[in-house]
Amino acid sequence: MEKCPICATRIANRLCPALGKRLCSICCGEHRQRSIGCPSDCQYLIAALRKQRERLGRELSKEWDRFTGYLREREEGHLIPMLEILREALANGIHKLDVTDDEVIVALEYCAQRLSPIELMERPPNILGRALEETLVPLVQSGRLDRELVREALKALAGFVEYFRQESDDKRFVQGLLGLYPPPPKKSSPIIRPEGSGIIKPDEGLV
Hints:
Strand order of the largest sheet: 1-2
Order of helices and strands: EEHHHHHHH
Number of helices: 7
Distance between the termini: 61 Å
Number of strands: 2
Shape: elongated
Structural class: mainly alpha
Radius of gyration: 20 Å
Strand content: under 5%
Mean pLDDT: 87
Low-confidence stretches: 188-198
Largest sheet: 2 strands, antiparallel
Helix content: 40-55%
Oligomer: single chain
């Protein structure tokens, strides 16, 4: 049986599309997306990312339950429906973007400031911030969403992401959220607009 060219001890049972060689499963996992530039369609990479997202999704769900329980204890349970809307809309936007937890926090905080009674002229910090702004601000201005409720929910969600994130994993929240909301079918949807800006849009039936 062929030996793994990296460790030279274990059986090479996986064909690596990046190297064009067979590796053992352990070296595949240890070097994946580190010293090996894995193509996005690698079956082993796809399976590993799916498992990681599912695990982080379970962790996020557990912490989310604690978070909403904390809000109820503080008599802020009225924020929870809006938080759920923002969380799902954010997930749909993240499916189209490559962002980190820090970028999510910055985008949420920017939109909270954008909805402040004091008019701010600063530019969106990133495409996610612009997408949130283009979605939420018109809904608030039209009276379909309460300005203060959205602001408080945005700030609360930014606080949760800050709590859940880790220094050792700059996408812990992002990956966990994608674990809770797998990629939608590739078809036209009222939730995602493909133009690049305004990617996020709450479901029409929820606002």
